[in-house]
Amino acid sequence: MPPAKKPRKAAPRKLDADPLFEYAVQLLGIRGYSTGDLRAKLRAKAAHLPDIDAAIERLQEIGYLDDKRYAESFATARVENDGFGRMRLLTDLRARRISGSLANQAVAHALEGRPESELIDAYIERRMSSLVGAGPIEDERKLASAYRRLRRAGFTSGAILTALKRKAARPELVNDTPEEDVEEDGPL
């Protein structure tokens, strides 16, 4: 007996202008989106591409879609909940299709009045328990691992090295020449 054929899945139903707008409102009711991310979601559902621009314009007019508000709340949440640094916040916002200038403004707002050294110490305290309370760190590999992890969290090399020198048993072993940091206002 030959194997049974799998039934084909029907193509996703394409939506006209009004149902597309309602779909966009449903998406925004579940979670926030940037204009670029929402546009990509709607592109997969729209029967007519001009309906996407009309829906997005209408959402912006009624205040449901605001990239500035989205970027600021996203960046603030990432700082408060995850403790990330400037570079990680910029990368994450740009991945969500937020423009560079708007991303810079949102990150500046989220990090306002918080020195990077304080953020690094808080990140270590919260996320790197092996470095907390264990006394001075002897193992160079552990310091190197901590450095890499802090870089991924979005902190600059100089500030990381300063923080790790405070934790190291032999601070002279922590390299003083930081690798090149990406310019704050430049592309990532």
Given the structure, what is the number of helices?
A: 9
Indicate the mean pLDDT.
Answer: 88
The end-to-end span amounts to 58 Å
C-alpha Rg (nearest Å): 23 Å
Assembly form of the protein: single chain
Q: Give a count of the beta strands, DSSP E runs of length 2 or more.
A: 0
Helix content: 55-70%
Question: What ranges have pLDDT less than 50 throughout 5 or more consecutive residues?
Answer: 182-188
**Outline:** elongated
Quote the beta fraction.
Answer: under 5%
Q: Work out the count of structural domains.
A: 3
Structure description:
The protein has 188 residues and is an all-alpha fold. It folds into three domains: 17-61, Arc Repressor Mutant, subunit A (Orthogonal Bundle); 67-111; 116-173. Helices cover 59% and strands 0% of the residues. It has nine helices and no strands. The protein has helices spanning 17-30, 35-45, 50-61, 67-82, 86-95, 100-111, 116-127, 140-152, 157-167. It starts with 16 loop residues before the first helix and ends in a 21-residue tail after the last helix.
Please specify the SSE layout and strand pairing.
Layout: H1 17-30, H2 35-45, H3 50-61, H4 67-82, H5 86-95, H6 100-111, H7 116-127, H8 140-152, H9 157-167
Q: Care to give the gist of this entry?
A:
The chain has helices spanning 17-30, 35-45, 50-61, 67-82, 86-95, 100-111, 116-127, 140-152, 157-167. It is mainly alpha-helical and 188 residues long.
Record keyword descriptors for this entry:
mainly alpha, 59% helix, disordered C terminus, single chain, Arc Repressor Mutant, subunit A, 3 domains, 188 residues
